[in-house]
Structure formats: C-alpha cells, structure tokens
C-alpha cells in the first residue's frame, strides 16, 4: 500500500501547503530535526508527544531500516509519514484496502514497540498507557499500570486464547495486533481530513 | 425505576389531593376577604366546593400524575412498547381522556397557551435532550446535521407550501380563503420534525448511531428554523433580521404576534411532552455535556420573550390538560376532505426529495457515506409532533382565516406520522436491513488505541498546521479538564470521567461475575477437592468421606444453581447430616455462589432501561469479593500469613439461621482504591451507595497495613473448631469494628468461604503466564501479582474476557 501512496498523485495544493509548513518548521533548512518540533506550541499538551515525534524519525516508518532513528528528515520523508494518514480511497479494491489498513496499523504498532524487537512487551505497553493517561491528573500510576496489565491480558486472550499454565506470553506481535483490530473500522480514526484529495 | 416512579406518583397524588382537601371543608362563614359578605343572607354553608379556587394547581397536578402513571405503565409493559411507539400510545391516552372530559361537561378543556408550552413544557424536554446528547457523535456530524436542519427544513417548508398552493390553484381544494402566504406558513409549521417522537421511535429501533444522530440532531435544530421561517410570514410584517436570528438575541416571541383564542382545541400531544419520569441519575461525567448540548439545542423561542404577551386573556381550564383531537375536530368548522389527500403525500414527498438531494451533496464531503437505506430511513423517520401542533394552534384567527382547517389538518398529519409511520418504521428497518448499532462488548484495547489515535491525529494536525476536528476537540477537552471540571465536578467524579477507566472497571466486574459463574458451573468441586497447602482446617476435607461432602455440596448446588435465593429450610435439614466443618463449608460455599451471574449492558441511547436494583448490590459484592480474594492470595504469598477467618455478615439475613458479625473491611485494596472509586461511582451502584463518598486517596499504603494487622489479629483468635463460633466475641467485635476505616460501611463486608480463603483459586486470567514481567514486589503493585496457590483449579482460562 505504501506504493500507492506515491503512485497516486496528491493534489499539488496540498503538497504546496505541506511544503510551506515544512519550511516553517525547519526554519528554511532542508531537513528537520527533533528539536524543530518544539516549535509547534500545541504539541506540548499532547500526552504522547514524545512518541509521536519519535515516530517521525523512526526508520521503520521511513522505510530506511528495521530499527533505529534517523537524525533528520527531509521533505520527502515528511510526506511519507504524512501519507500514513491519508483516507482510504473508496475506489480501491478490497485487497488494497486491506493493505492500506495494515500499513496504518503498522504505524501504530511501531509507535508502541519502542525497542523495535517486533513485540510489544508488557513494559512497553505499560509505558504507553501511562503516557496516554498522564493527561488526566487524577489517575494514579498504579491504575494506569493495572489498566495496562488488563489490556495485555485481554490481548493475550484474543491472540492466544486459552493458555496453559506454564505458557508465557511474551508480547504482542504484529499479527496479534492485527487480530485485535480485526473487524473494527479504523477508517474514521486514522485519517486527517485535510489530506483529502 | 418503578420504585421511584411510584414514589413520584405518590407524591403527585398527595399533591393532587391536597388542594382538594383544602377546598372541601372550607367553611364559608369564616371566609375572610372581599366577597364574603354575600354569604350571610343565604344561611350558613358548612361545606362548599371551591373548585375554581383550586382548579389550576389541581388540574396540573392531576395531569402530571396521570401522565406519569401512564408512562410508568408503558415502561412496564415492554411488549406493547416494542411494537407501538410511545408517542402513539400517549396520543391514544390523550384521546381517551379528552373524550371523557368532553363527554363529561362539554366545557372547553385546558388550553395550550404559549406561556404554558414554552415555559413549562419545553425546558424540561430541552434540558433532558441536551443532557443525554451523545456529544462526540453530535459534534462529529454537526455539519451534516446543520445542513439537514437548516437547508432541509427550509426546503421542506417551501416544497410543502408551494405544492399545496399549486393544488389549491388547480381548484381541487374547493373554495378556501387562503393565500400563498398562508400556505407557506403552514408548510413551515408542518416541516418541523419532532425530536421527541423521533427519539421514542428510534430508541425502539436501534439503528446505527450515525443515522440516529443525524435524524435526532436534525429534529432538534429544525425547530428553530421552523419558527424563524414562520415568524416573519405569520406576523405579516417584517421585523428585520434582528428577529430570532441568534439564540441569545431572541428578541421577539413569534407567537406573540399571533394572539391566542380561547379555543377549545388543545394539544393532544401534551402527554408526549412529559419528561421521562425517572431521569436516571447519571454520573456527573455527563455534566460537561450539558452546556454544549443544551446550548446547541435550545430553540430560539424557548428564551424569555422580550415582548410581553399582548392579550393575556385568562383561560378557563376546567379539566385535565388532555383534550381529545376528536373533541377539537368536532368543534372545527369545515370538515373538508379536500386538503388532506394532497397534503400528506405532498409533505412526505417533499421531505424525501430534500433528503435525497442533500445526501448527494453531503456524500461528496463525508467520510462515512450515507447510503440509500439510510436516506430512506431518514425520510421516513420524519415524524411530526407536538411542536407543529402547538404552533398551528397559536395561529391567529384574524390573520389566517382558515385556521381551523389548518389545525385539523395538522392533527391529521401528526396522527398519521406518529402512529402509522411510528408503527411501521421498525419492521421497515428490519426489512431493509439497516445497519444496526453494533453492540460490541467494550474492549480495553480498543479504547486505549482509540485514545492513542486521537492524540496522534491531533498531533498530526498540529504539526501540519491545520485546524481540524481533533484540534478543536482537544482544545475543548483541555479547557474542560482544566477549568470546568474543577469547578463543576467532585474530585472523585473527575477521576471517573475517563472512558478508559470505565471500560476497565466494567471489564473487572465482568471478570468477577464470570469468575463466580465459573465457580458455580463447576459446582465448586474443584475448590473442595484440591489439596491445600497450609491450613490445617483444611485437613478435614481431605479426609475420607469426600463423597459425602461432594454429594451433599454438589447436590445442593445442583438444587440451587439456578435459584438466586437459597431455601434455608432444606439446607438446614441437610446440615444436620453433615459434619460441622463441612457444614460450614457448605454454607459458605453456597453463600458465596448464591448470585446468579448475569450480563446486562446498557445500550447507547436507551435511557429508560435501568437495571433493577437487586443486581447492583450483587455486582458490588461480587466485585469486592473477587478483589478481596486476589489480595489475599497475594498476601498469603507475600506475607506468609494465611488469610484466616474473618467474620462475615449475611446478606440475606432473614433466611439465615446464624448471624455473623461484620467487622473486617472487605477487600478494598489500596491499589484498587482508584478503581474502587469507580466501583462506587459506576452507574448502577451510585444509586445505592451514596454514603461511600470515598476518600481513598490517602489510604494507599494504610489500607494494606490495616488489613495485615487485622489478619494477624484474627489469627490469634482463631479456634480450630471452625467458623462455627462467631469468630469474634462481642468485645473483640467492637474493637475490630472501631477500627474499621470510616469510609466503609459494615454492610458491605464480604467473607470468602473457608475453602476459598485457604486455597485461593486464581481469578480468571491466570496471571502466571505473565510471570516474566512481574518484577516488582511492592505491595501496591498490580493485582496480577497474585500468584499464591500452585495448584490450578482452573486448568483453562474461563471465557471471561474473550473477544
């Protein structure tokens, strides 16, 4: 599906718009670094800010490797990341729709799996949940942890079903992740409107 | 709900009786004030009927009472309401009552004045709708809704009016003294889709949320449009754009342009305007929905009118506020059939056409497309209601000559749409296979990821410098959280606002319930038969006669597995044949698993289905029990202390033969404290437990020490003879009681059975599988650490949180 992102032409207006924004963020430099994102004021309020910024530099999202972070990204990379949020075109056939869906979910997966080992372990999950809930000042850390544990259990029961007592569930793989999301429509959740063509 | 309703109607009855009582024994002779002088010449009347004196409040009270009773009756008879929409039933009720009234005294019944309508009837409806408005759906589809409401209504009004005018011009209607303006006015009245009727019908039908919110939102907002479009036309004068344009600037009360007339016709649909009898005590998290909801929804003319009512003629309400449409119609002048045939299809056709056109436009911009079926439902679901009737009744006879005709026609249209369309829409929806609202079980992962998505999208919007939905929503929720919630909500309520927590909590409950179900299903044999590790009290069970124990317990369980209550008589008899300790085991085991598990989840917009009261307590107790077990299993692993006997209090005291004294706090785990907040705050439970206003924040560390100390205390006083004796002598009981933290009410204590205590079955979830990740040994760590018993009574994971 990522091929699709490049083959189907985006409207030049939008590219122009994004380019302007890119220049604004980078201060007229050809590349952006992590620090440049500090210029976006409202991003401060976002609880998972760090993860999102990191996602921009994640080599897996940029298709430059299977792990690690890039130091800086150029406009093309910027567009690549943005293209994850394009709405799924209704004219595509079923298979392509599935591919697109998978790509979007993969983006989310990469965000959770911070050590790039292909699994979301309990610790990583806890980390994510704590960050997510950090916006609410009334939720203590313990609750966040319990929620993460509960979610992990839920995921385990989905992915592996009944487990033997000595079986150990190591983490959520990408396939498990897909299984969790099976049947749930993410179309409305993972697109940004202005990227409509 | 019925309890509350009964109480409410009791009060209503009292209220109704009170004026009557006051009126009856009034002695004329002692009447003070003007006009009493003329009583002397006629002698001394001891008892008089002061009907006129009390009739206003009396009628109102009686009317409210009757309507409330009717509403309760409708809810109790669920079979009827599932077929016939509530509005239709209420119309029928109005007809019946009005007929009675009219037949009784042929006097003009209660007249609907604008004052009554807009001041007393409309605000509760408005506020109620605003309170229950599903926020996110509404604002997410706001563009669509506005389009339908504004453009659609204007279109409907225009097409209806023009088509009627066309028919009139063609002569089919006969001789009527109407002009184009009148027709347009009428069109604008009729075009208003009524939210109450829509809601009543759609609640039964359960279409998918998008469709529902569009129709509902449209019906909410188009009242305003109706009035605006009717306003300049009806008044015959153009008051300029200042009229009714913006909500806070409602300058002119449109109906004030049209006087009232002491017309006998009144709204048959008044009862349908009744707010629900039991507005559920929703948790305060909805409170923040109130400002945006009610703001966006309040029609223009629900505001205080600027101009005073021009001709405040005092009406003479003489009976209940319900009058029959038949009575009204009889009084109407022309009974012409000419207008009706073209009107109904005209208005419906206009609406359909409008819907189709607008949808075509909208689908170019919407993400989630509206399909043909949705459009059909939307056009068919346009039920007219009381608003149309009220507006038409308020027409001035002088300005609109054929007012009676319009009134009767409106009545016909309203009847038709509500009754016929209301009745048939459900089969239609089923036949068309409209996408129903998916009632999925709440999944924690879904919620979490959904939340993550929201944040990601906001971030993307921020980064790319666009202002989009997510940005606005984020801004609002930040503002809400920082300022509004702090002012308007309690701290505990603020905690529980988070949807994720609610889902988590629901899942925990579900967990607990299915845990109990599992235990029941297995007949607790697993509990009994499994060898224990420590407690010597258990030794008795591994001795011979397991078959007896087994037989008796399983027999008893089989006997009672489907019954919620336990017949203590048979248990008593059986008890005599069992040894004491086993006896107690039985007793406790059965007491443990008395509750029948059930799963009920609230539907999104069924406001009237409240789970009955008895399950709330069950829920809570089950939850506490489960949590307590988990703590104890954890504790036994960590502290090496066997959670031994703790006293319990029997819930169903009247059936129990022995009394236990309550002392120990239930398993209010410190780590569960925030979630326990939620236990209490959860919708079902809030009603029954207001006194547990929690203040758990401080007790994080204190709770477990408290428990530990109590446990160690009780260990000393344990007698090996079993729980037969009250564990604590009365003195100790008191001392224990005095140590109960103030935030606990003794009524909630739970004891696990002896069996369960000793050998803690793992809660469904078999946490050991996550063993590699549980590194912390802090006592305040997650409950997943509970890993005491090595043996697994549950070999397989019960299907508790299966997806």
TrEMBL record, chain A:
Compartments it resides in: Cell projection, Lamellipodium; Cell projection, Ruffle membrane; Cytoplasm; Membrane
InterPro entries: CHP3, EF-hand-dom_pair, EF_Hand_1_Ca_BS, EF_hand_dom
Subcellular location, principal: other
KW Transport (keyword) present: no
Keywords for the protein's UniProt record, in alphabetical order: Calcium, Cell membrane, Cell projection, Cytoplasm, Differentiation, Lipoprotein, Membrane, Metal-binding, Myristate, Nucleus, Protein kinase inhibitor
Membrane topology: Lipid-anchor
PANTHER family per record: CALCINEURIN B HOMOLOGOUS PROTEIN 3
This protein's name: Calcineurin B homologous protein 3
Organism: Neovison vison (American mink)
Lineage per the UniProt record: Eukaryota, Metazoa, Chordata, Craniata, Vertebrata
UniProtKB/TrEMBL annotation, chain B:
Pro residues bias locations: 273-282
Swiss-Prot/TrEMBL catalytic activity: Na(+)(in) + H(+)(out) = Na(+)(out) + H(+)(in)
Biased composition annotated in UniProt, kind: Polar residues: 255-266
Pfam families: Na_H_Exchanger
Any Gene Ontology biological process: sodium ion import across plasma membrane
Leader sequence residues: 1-29
Regions crossing the membrane: 58-76, 88-104, 116-133, 145-168, 180-202, 405-425
Bilayer disposition of the protein: Multi-pass membrane protein
GO molecular function, one term: identical protein binding
Gene Ontology cellular-component terms listed: brush border membrane; early endosome membrane; extracellular exosome; recycling endosome membrane
Location(s), subcellular: Apical cell membrane; Early endosome membrane; Recycling endosome membrane
Keywords from the UniProt entry: Antiport, Cell membrane, Endosome, Ion transport, Membrane, Phosphoprotein, Signal, Sodium, Sodium transport, Transmembrane, Transmembrane helix, Transport
Subcellular location, principal: membrane
InterPro entries: Cation/H_exchanger_CPA1, Cation/H_exchanger_TM, Na/H_exchanger_3/5, NaH_exchanger, Reg_factor_effector_dom_sf
Coiled coil residues, start to end: none
Ranges of residues in domain Cation/H+ exchanger transmembrane: 64-228, 350-431
Record region (Disordered): 255-332, 781-803
Function in brief: Plasma membrane Na(+)/H(+) antiporter. Exchanges intracellular H(+) ions for extracellular Na(+) in 1:1 stoichiometry, playing a key role in salt and fluid absorption and pH homeostasis. Major apical Na(+)/H(+) exchanger in kidney and intestine playing an important role in renal and intestine Na(+) absorption and blood pressure regulation.
Family: Belongs to the monovalent cation:proton antiporter 1 (CPA1) transporter (TC 2.A.36) family.
Protein name stated in the entry: Sodium/hydrogen exchanger
Species this protein is from: Neovison vison (American mink)
